[in-house]
Amino acid sequence: MATIPPGGTIGILGGGQLGRMLAMAAAQLGLATHIYCPDEELPAADVAGEVTRAAYDDEAALVRFAGSVEVVTYEFENVPAETARILSERGIVRPGPLALATAQDRVVEKNFLVSHGIATAPFADVADEAGLRSAMEAIGTPSILKTRRFGYDGKGQAKIASAADALAAYDEIGRAPAILEGFVPFEREISVIVARGLDGRTAAYDPVENIHKNHILDRTLAPAALTRALSDEACAIAARIVSELDYVGVMGVELFLLPESGSKRRLLVNEIAPRVHNSGHWTMDACAVSQFEQHIRAICGWPLGSPARHSDAVMTNLIGEEAADWARLAATPDTALHLYGKREARPGRKMGHATRLYPLGTRPPVTPS
Amino acid sequence: MATIPPGGTIGILGGGQLGRMLAMAAAQLGLATHIYCPDEELPAADVAGEVTRAAYDDEAALVRFAGSVEVVTYEFENVPAETARILSERGIVRPGPLALATAQDRVVEKNFLVSHGIATAPFADVADEAGLRSAMEAIGTPSILKTRRFGYDGKGQAKIASAADALAAYDEIGRAPAILEGFVPFEREISVIVARGLDGRTAAYDPVENIHKNHILDRTLAPAALTRALSDEACAIAARIVSELDYVGVMGVELFLLPESGSKRRLLVNEIAPRVHNSGHWTMDACAVSQFEQHIRAICGWPLGSPARHSDAVMTNLIGEEAADWARLAATPDTALHLYGKREARPGRKMGHATRLYPLGTRPPVTPS
Fold this sequence. Notes:
The structure is a homodimer of 369-residue chains. By secondary structure, chain A is α+β, with helices and mostly antiparallel strands. Chain A has helices spanning 17-28, 59-67, 81-90, 97-103, 106-115, 129-139, 166-172, 228-244, 283-286, 291-299, 326-330, and strands at 9-13, 32-36, 50-52, 71-74, 123-126, 143-147, 157-160, 178-182, 188-196, 202-204, 208-213, 216-222, 249-259, 265-273, 311-319, 335-339, 350-359. In chain A, the strands form 3 sheets. In chain A, strands 9, 10, 11, 12, 13, 14, 15, 16 and 17 form a 9-stranded antiparallel beta sheet that branches. In chain A, strands 3-2-1-4 form a 4-stranded parallel beta sheet, sandwiched between helices. The first copy, chain A, is globular and about 60 Å long. The model of chain A has no long low-confidence stretch (mean pLDDT 95). At the A-B interface, helix 1, helix 11, strand 16 and strand 17 of A face helix 1, helix 11, strand 16 and strand 17 of B.
């Protein structure tokens, strides 16, 4: 139960915007950071005390990195298992290997959820063409075929509208090990940013609603318009997941809200992300303790902060050229602008975000973006 | 009217906690920072992209520094005039030389204020022993003798209770060029954090009340309990000062609140600080745009942010060993903890601060610390 006091150094795998915002949260608490990432451009490097630019399979560099920090964390779930093993043998990695192994593979993740009584969309494992046929019989259409690993922002996915599309979809995802998920007629997408401390306590921010555009998060509405019962249920599911994984850190839990009979609704878990999450960026400006600080607190063995918010919020991602609009956004009242310092505004690239604050209880209903 | 867009680099003279928080605010806006400071330990260096550790009279280093940034600013008012001159000849320095020259010398500052019809405590220039005698005749006692330059946190000051103390006080401050100020029986100390943009617009956060301990700021209460008329007057004075100085950036304006007849009160300006100010730290957690971001916006020619606050706040400085209390503070609800990454908790050293948030209009009255 090692606690890392102010003055300690946190190692972060990955040098993107999540690493950047983690590094700033660490600095606020008097903690130093060391970024490890092979990429050429490292948004996180601007605000970190130390940077190692090396490959994730560079064992010598990993060993040096592990020796220079008190704890290692990561900004992305696809940390190679061998990288995690090398680091774990030489120091503390939080969240731990079980969370990584679970979240890296959609089949393992769904089996984990179902085995703990947490509802998901219907799914079947697809190991080969024969497996695809039996999965299609079990799940039917409409459905969606996803690679088990390395999918994000809609990549590695293909929709199947009718049985005749199945093989084409399988080809489209490169015949990789896959999962077939039944399409669920969800009404809205919800997420919960939950944290679990070293002492086992959990703290969840209120559920939020997420609106996607081109498979990329466009806006997060905080809080989601939910009954108290559904909001509590979503938080309880998230707390259950981090507890069952003996998790330490912040996790993003994505859920679907489905209509049932009449006004009744039910929740399914879509997927989990063992890291700070884009749908939690609003906490930087609407809560005393942001998801980034909460993650740093958790992995350092500090008490978790309260997830209470002082304001409602609407967070809008700035994708690609949208960030060119910075001057207008900077002049918008009650708005906190965050730019990630990336040089090239490529299409689909997350360049920044803007969070507009509203007094508690006054968040407007969603408007077209 | 050069605007510095995201991707630009800001040079900051000084590497302490104010530089650190400025660098983080710049990073949030996608701007890089370059810290210039001769000190061994540089809290700002942890979060800056580049650091030059060199003396303020190292002309070659200053020239290189000026060539590497789009604009130079500073975290302390005692930037040597020659340093400012070298940098101004090679680039943009904001706030400009007039603000520095005015704020560096208590006599120049008071004359500036009085010449613009802004009330101050009575004062007289003390150039030598004869000057001290005539100043004592003009100002009387109780009064306070202060060095014209380089005073801070009560340093370079001596109280004069009766005429017999005058020479001892003069010796105590090393017979440096001085100002004698009449002691004013103030009820409370107030400050206004005001910003002026490149376009001449001003924006002031609501006035706050400051409580000192051992001549060092202990707590800031936001907002100050003031009538609307006095609050408006304090903000108008602050806006007047930055406008008359053709100032660009954030300034801290310290005022005394004095009893008049009955419930009437009046304001005197105590001193100005041409930089972000300790009594503005609460804006980091209680406003969409903090004083640090506001300063960066101003010096980069961006639109100023709204100074509106979403929460009331009480900021408490953590001086010396008080920062050892970090774990309890981290567990206090609705509290944002800020630690500056300084290694040694020397007495009187500002190690961090904690800001407790309250819903608008519910800040409790001051309690003993």
